[in-house]
């Protein structure tokens, strides 16, 4: 926002006299009682103009300035504004600029008073001494000054009665210092700046300044460097980076720009690169007696010793923000004390509170606090980080137990549990805590990697990877688990390595990298078996089965699910048992064994409900709905899938929500409600893409292509079908490829003719038989029969359709009725409906 006086850190405290007579200056504090001879008490108060010069480079702060100008209306009762903010944020400049803008409204004077809450070598000004300076400044003889604060305050209010004056009180310590200095008459305006929030000042209108918006910060930098910078290009990018490195703090920007202004031959890009590379960035931000670090130092020194130590500990936090529990762990203090410290630092603008209960240090204050912490004994710093990590790990593990969909072998915990941690009552609270701390947990993990804290890397990776499975982004979860695997290997922690490999295999599977998923799962399985860790073995068998299912090997998938089920039952792990039953239901459905699939899903559903597993219940309901849709019971399918969707949303589980939306879209397509099917499908597609679930994206694109074909948008249908085919082939999902080829055949029958359509159905038939999918086999046969009808090959059509109908009827598929009717029409001698 400014160059000009960097708040109140410039020169000593004073009340300045007439602008044209610099001898009429009265010093507050220890110099206050120096007198200036005045011949007589004037009958009227002279118009005083003691404001510092206005800033020619005033930039930005338009909203804040309007707020000050709008409420400053003479004739109203005295208006009091407080302008608070962190050191260097531009409080003094804004207050001074506003007072200059208001000069015509307050013709009887514009006074400027320094209160020295943060002036080097000065104590905060005594309000009685300030009143003495103010009173003598308006003509009261020194020998006529009354004794005592109350008497001087009363005389001050009396002398201002009926006058219209604006008074800027800069760098106030607290409300007690300011209260006696306030005018009492209508028509006066007081603007008070402070690094503290003066909440105790009754009737004041607060205005808290934050750092500048990026565009305003860039404009200020350019203006102060006296450069012309294009709107785009490397120089403009360098300006944006420079002000970002300054944390968009006006004082820091002014100091950095001032140095560049004196070196016109320097390139902004090179100058910014040098500043970015500087080891002591705060040291770079000083000019003469103005420095960012010096401004912070004054606020730091005003804190009691225990609060100084607390601020230094906050500087060790590797993440962007912190709550009271983490701050208590880092500071080694009780939670109540941590809250008091945070509240006081917030009052002093040394921390910000961007959201209720979340605190953040400005980047430069963080750097300053960290530099102070470096002067503490190394052992103290290590213990502080140990406490912080133990708190985060303990609470993340507690959260994980609320939403994990399977038990896993636990690695031994070596760290001491935290003294205090939030009580997470259920899944919703656990997920809310993880969402709030996600970036901090990642930051702590990166810090642990950089510092070689291997056991912390393993523990963080295992504590948070299930959360990333649920909410993504999965690439971050995969990176985290990769770091955990490497750290476990360095430690020789085979159980931790196996757990991380299992988790990484899961993520490879859902992102469609099936080869990597198999490799990781087999590595985990080998480790678990060498450790005789039966629970880990069962978990990995189950995941291997799911990969086999995705790649079309349904018999292997069923066999692996049966193996996992046997191990879970031997361990009396009912959640694992339910999960394996669900996997079996899915595998049986893929091979057309719909009755067996439904029976396994119902067993799983009963177990999930007995365990109170709402996620498991949602999964089983969704699976049952899918089975009912395939057998043609669309009302039941819609009901079951709707129940699953409601559960997924209540959890919340975005992947489950996407799956349910996709299934509902299919139900609506089959009932002929194509408009609703398109809306549901598009929403599912958005979720899949946000989660980077390429398999879900492929299925949804295929089905949206079917909807577009049925509504006559053949161009969009072709585009979606081709994209789905590309995805299935890239994923190695043979069954998905067969499904799309059948869809493509139906589309080409309408656009390119039966010969090209027939080629697609024949490819689909070959793949369906390879992966043992009777449903897609029958669909391919039926599609080929339709093409044969179009070309007049009726005997070929009847033979193919008979085979399709036999399969449909054997597996109980919904298509049995329509295909049977078409076959009867053909065998009755009529060509039937070729569509």
TrEMBL record:
Disordered, as annotated region: 401-423
SMART domains xref list: TPR
Pfam family, one: TPR_12
InterPro entries recorded: AAA_22, P-loop_NTPase, TPR-like_helical_dom_sf, TPR_rpt
Superkingdom to which the source organism belongs: Bacteria
Keyword tags: ATP-binding, Nucleotide-binding
Domain ORC1/DEAH AAA+ ATPase: residue ranges: 82-211
Gene Ontology MF, one: ATP binding
Comp. bias (Basic and acidic residues): 401-410
Keyword Nucleotide-binding on entry: yes
Protein name: ATP-binding protein
Organism: Streptomyces toxytricini (Actinomyces toxytricini)
């Amino acid at each position: 926002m400014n160059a000009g006086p960097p708040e109140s850190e410039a020169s000593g405290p004073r009340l300045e006299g007439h602008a044209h007579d610099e001898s009429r200056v009265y010093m507050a504090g220890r110099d206050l009682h120096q007198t200036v001879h005045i011949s007589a008490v004037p009958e009227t108060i002279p118009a005083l103009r003691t404001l510092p010069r206005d800033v020619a480079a005033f930039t930005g702060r338009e909203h804040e300035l309007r707020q000050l100008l709008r409420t400053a209306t003479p004739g109203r009762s005295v208006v009091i504004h407080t302008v608070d903010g962190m050191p260097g944020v531009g409080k003094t400049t804004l207050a001074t600029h506003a007072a200059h803008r208001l000069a015509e409204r307050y013709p009887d004077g514009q006074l400027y008073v320094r209160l020295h809450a943060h002036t080097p070598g000065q104590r905060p000004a005594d309000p009685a001494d300030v009143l003495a300076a103010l009173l003598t400044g308006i003509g009261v003889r020194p020998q006529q000054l009354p004794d005592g604060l109350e008497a001087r305050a009363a005389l001050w209010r009396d002398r201002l009665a009926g006058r219209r004056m604006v008074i800027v009180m800069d760098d106030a310590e607290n409300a007690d210092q300011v209260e006696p200095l306030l005018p009492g008459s209508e028509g006066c305006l007081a603007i008070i700046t402070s690094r503290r929030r003066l909440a105790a000042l009754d009737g004041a209108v607060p205005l808290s300044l934050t750092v500048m918006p990026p565009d305003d910060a860039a404009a200020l930098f350019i203006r102060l460097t006296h450069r012309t910078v294009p709107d785009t290009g490397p120089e403009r990018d360098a300006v944006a980076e420079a002000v970002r490195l300054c944390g968009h703090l006006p004082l820091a920007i002014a100091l950095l720009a001032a140095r560049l202004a004196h070196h016109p031959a320097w390139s902004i890009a090179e100058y910014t690169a040098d500043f970015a590379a500087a080891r002591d960035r705060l040291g770079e931000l000083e000019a003469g007696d103005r420095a960012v670090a010096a401004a912070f130092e004054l606020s730091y020194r005003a804190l009691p010793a225990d609060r100084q130590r607390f601020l230094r500990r906050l500087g060790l936090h590797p993440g962007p923000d912190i709550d009271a529990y983490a701050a208590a762990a880092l500071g080694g203090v009780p939670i109540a004390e941590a809250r008091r410290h945070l509240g006081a630092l917030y009052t002093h603008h040394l921390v910000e509170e961007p959201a209720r209960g979340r605190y953040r240090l400005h980047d430069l204050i963080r750097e300053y606090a960290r530099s102070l912490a470096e002067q503490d004994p190394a052992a103290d710093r290590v213990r502080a980080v140990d406490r912080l990590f133990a708190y985060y790990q303990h609470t993340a593990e507690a959260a994980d137990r609320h939403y994990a969909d399977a038990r896993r072998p636990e690695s031994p915990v070596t760290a001491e549990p935290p003294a205090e941690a939030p009580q997470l009552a259920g899944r919703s609270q656990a997920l809310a805590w993880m969402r709030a701390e996600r970036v901090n947990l990642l930051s702590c993990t990166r810090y642990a990697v950089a510092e070689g804290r291997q056991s912390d890397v393993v523990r963080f990776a295992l504590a948070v990877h299930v959360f990333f499975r649920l909410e993504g982004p999965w690439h971050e979860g995969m990176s985290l688990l990769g770091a955990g695997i490497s750290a476990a290997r360095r430690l020789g922690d085979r159980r931790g390595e196996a757990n991380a490999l299992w988790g990484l295999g899961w993520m490879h599977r859902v992102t469609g990298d099936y080869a990597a998923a198999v490799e990781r799962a087999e590595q985990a399985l080998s480790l678990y078996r060498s450790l005789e860790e039966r629970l880990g073995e069962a978990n990995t068998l189950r995941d291997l089965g799911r990969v086999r299912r995705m790649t079309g090997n349904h018999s292997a998938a069923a066999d692996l699910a049966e193996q996992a089920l046997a191990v879970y039952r031997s361990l009396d792990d009912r959640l694992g048992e339910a999960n394996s039953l669900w996997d079996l239901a899915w595998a049986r459905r893929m091979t057309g064994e719909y009755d067996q699939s439904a029976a396994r899903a119902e067993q799983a559903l009963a177990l999930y409900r007995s365990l109170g597993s709402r996620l498991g219940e949602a999964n089983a309901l969704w699976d049952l709905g899918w089975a009912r849709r395939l057998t043609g019971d669309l009302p039941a399918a819609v009901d079951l899938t709707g129940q699953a969707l409601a559960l997924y949303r209540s959890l919340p589980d975005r992947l489950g929500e996407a799956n349910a939306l996709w299934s509902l879209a299919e139900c609506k397509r089959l009932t002929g409600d194509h408009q609703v099917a398109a809306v549901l499908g598009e929403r599912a597609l958005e979720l899949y893409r946000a989660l980077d679930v390429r398999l879900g994206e492929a299925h949804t694109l295929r089905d949206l292509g079917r909807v577009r074909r049925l509504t006559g948008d053949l161009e969009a249908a072709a585009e979606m079908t081709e994209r789905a085919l590309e995805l299935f082939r890239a994923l190695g999902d043979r069954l998905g490829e067969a499904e799309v080829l059948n869809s493509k055949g139906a589309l080409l029958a309408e656009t390119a003719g039966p010969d090209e359509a027939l080629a697609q159905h024949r490819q689909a038939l070959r793949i369906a038989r390879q992966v043992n999918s009777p449903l897609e086999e029958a669909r391919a046969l039926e599609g080929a029969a339709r093409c044969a009808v179009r070309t007049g090959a009726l005997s070929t059509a009847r033979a193919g359709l008979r085979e399709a109908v036999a399969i449909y009827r054997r597996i109980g598929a919904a298509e049995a009725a329509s295909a049977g009717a078409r076959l009867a029409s053909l065998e009755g001698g009529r060509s039937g409906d070729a569509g």
